[in-house]
Design goal:
The complex is a heterodimer of chains A (302) and B (216). Chain A is of the alpha/beta class and 302 residues long. Chain A has a single domain, classed as Rossmann fold (3-Layer(aba) Sandwich), CATH 3.40.50.970. Helix content of chain A is 42%, strand content 11%. In chain A, the strands form two sheets. Chain A has a six-stranded parallel sheet with strand order 2-1-3-4-8-7, sandwiched between helices. A two-stranded antiparallel sheet of chain A has the order 5-6. In chain A, a hairpin with a 2-residue loop joins strand 5 (188-189) and strand 6 (192-193). In chain A, helix 1 (19-47) packs across helix 9 (263-273). The radius of gyration of chain A is 18 Å and the shape is globular. Chain B is of the alpha/beta class. In chain B, strands 2-1-3-4-6-5 form a six-stranded parallel sheet, with helices on both faces. A two-stranded parallel sheet of chain B has the order 7-8. The longest helix of chain B has 18 residues, at 80-97. Chain B is globular, with a radius of gyration of 18 Å. The chains are: A alpha/beta (302), B alpha/beta (216). Chains A and B meet through helix 5 and helix 6 of A and helix 3 and helix 4 of B.
């Protein structure tokens, strides 16, 4: 049986940063903060029952999307239900996302689907149809034809167990696709832990299909440099150990789990220790006010 | 030059590939007979899939999102059950949910005989006709096939084509038969249409007047 390692420093690349590292971390944190403040407002408004569609919050996992979008900005993107962070990190319009979540016709999908199907062709993001992992073979088929551009396929550790996801790894290698598989490994399928669902390790299995793989924690710099390294060795898979803070769906906070860490707070604390306290407080206040303002504005359209 | 149904399919597929506007994607395409001689015997534009149903349909649907026209071949129509999810949930709904098309052309091939009754002879027009966004047809003649191909190219919807091996060697075209004094109307679809002459003789013998409509 493979032993699964999960901790905040798992395969982290370094903790002593150069000045260029610090710039990268700060840029990533800017996106993390924007995603976080947006999601916190989503949570608050849903908790007040101001809207009732399906929502899948990505709080706790912000660093994955923020780092990926900085390392690989111009790509074709396939995400799944927990996709707010992907959409926002790659430059999707926040107002359209809110409109979708509250069921307005001006939403990304005419207000029909809540979180799962959100997309924006302008940023290269395709929609998801609600079945976990469905987007993985679809993304590979797309990459087979559109081979000038890199395709990123995001999925979770639950979706990784779908047979069609595993089959896609073999197909990607067979046709040497320019595709990066990114697994947001929060160790949970709804609330069932990985060890209760399987006895194999995703990165090892993907490697046996011939993919380049890395298995890391959700430290921004580690994600950033891992992707930079992998982008010339595609097809590849990056398994990112992360912690989902809130419920699988809806507005609620899960009970604290063993081996839990809050990546946002870790990065924030590190930056404060590096002398960025004022900038961070300003950034967070600006993003918080912005998120409150646009949520208020869109909710008035209901 | 007159073509059989198989030759028509091969001709239309080759023309699509040669124009760099499409591919043929499926399992065991280059195996003996190139899918009953309906696939052009060439490497260009042919994508051999691993034996991964469900994922296979997903690859075809994904290709259709990249501005080409994939012809996805299911060598037995019964494989539709395994491949249905990406076709029905993604390709058929894409235009409605996302506003972009997924024009995958699905060749689902039915057959008969060889003692495969309970296994691979099924035709699934009925259950799949209930799926919104996925038009279905069952062309059995060369002209019918060319006609549905034109419709497919003119639009950007996916299309499920219920083929039947029995039609592949046929040149025959079909006509409806209308009798104003008819007592019954018979609608025929797929390979049953090749039995309609026999049916007509039986009904004539029993002096039953009938209309016959061919369903494509």
């Amino acid at each position: 049986m493979m032993k699964e390692f999960r901790n905040q420093n798992y395969n982290i690349i370094r903790s002593n940063y150069s000045s260029s590292d610090i710039k990268i971390i700060y840029k990533i944190f800017q996106k993390m903060s924007l995603i976080r403040e947006f999601e916190l407002q989503t949570y608050e408004n849903r908790k007040k029952n101001l809207f009732k569609t399906l929502i899948y919050l990505c709080l706790g996992q912000e660093s994955i999307y923020a780092s990926t979008s900085l390392a690989l900005p111009k790509v074709s993107i396939f995400g799944q239900h927990r996709g707010h962070g992907i959409y926002l990190a790659y430059g999707g319009k926040p107002r359209k996302l809110i409109d979708e979540l509250i069921g307005l016709k001006t939403g990304t999908n005419k207000g029909m689907g809540g979180s799962p199907p959100i997309f924006d062709k302008k940023i290269g993001m395709f929609g998801h149809i609600g079945f976990i992992g469905d987007q993985v073979p679809v993304s590979a088929g797309y990459s087979l034809i559109n081979n000038k551009k890199i395709t990123i396929s995001f999925f979770g550790d639950g979706a990784a167990e779908e047979d069609y996801v595993l089959a896609t790894f073999g197909f990607a290698k067979q046709y040497n696709l320019k595709i990066l598989f990114v697994c947001d490994d929060n160790d949970l399928s709804v609330l069932t832990k990985t060890k209760e669902r399987r006895k194999w390790n995703l990165a090892s299995v993907a490697k046996s299909f011939g993919l380049e793989t890395v298995d890391i924690t959700d430290d921004p710099l580690t994600i950033y440099y891992s992707i930079k390294k992998l982008k010339n060795k595609l097809p590849a898979l990056i398994n990112i150990r992360t912690c989902r803070e809130y419920w699988h769906e809806g507005a609620g906070i899960d009970k604290p789990k063993k081996n839990y860490w809050n990546r946002y707070e870790i990065v924030r604390k590190n930056l404060i220790n590096m002398g960025f306290e004022n900038s961070i407080v300003n950034l967070e206040n600006t993003n918080r006010n912005w998120a409150k303002k646009i949520w208020k504005e869109r909710l008035q359209k209901l | 030059m007159e073509r059989t149904v198989a030759e028509t399919i091969k001709f239309l597929s080759k023309r699509l590939i040669d124009s760099n506007k499409g591919i043929i994607i499926g399992q065991c395409l280059s195996a003996v007979g190139w899918v009953q001689n309906t696939v052009p015997a060439q490497k260009k534009g042919i994508v051999e899939l691993p034996m991964t149903d469900v994922a296979g349909a997903g690859f075809a649907v994904g290709a259709s999102l990249a501005n080409i026209r994939p012809i996805f071949i299911l060598r037995f129509q019964s494989f539709l059950w395994l491949n249905a999810s990406p076709l029905i949930n993604h390709a058929a709904k894409a235009k409605e949910i996302f506003g972009y098309p997924a024009p995958v052309f699905i060749r689902a091939i039915a057959s008969e005989g060889l003692s495969s009754g309970p296994l691979h002879t099924n035709c699934y027009h009925s259950p799949f006709a209930h799926m919104p966004g996925l038009p279905i047809c069952a062309p059995m003649s060369p002209k019918e096939y060319s006609s549905i191909w034109k419709i497919y190219l003119k639009n950007n919807d996916p299309l499920l084509v219920s083929e039947h091996r029995r039609s592949y060697k046929e040149y025959k075209e079909f006509n409806d038969y209308i009798d104003k004094k008819s007592k019954i109307t018979v609608f025929v679809i797929s390979a049953c249409r090749f039995e309609i002459e026999q049916t007509q003789l039986i009904l004539k013998k029993k002096k039953i007047k009938k209309n016959i409509y061919n369903k494509v």
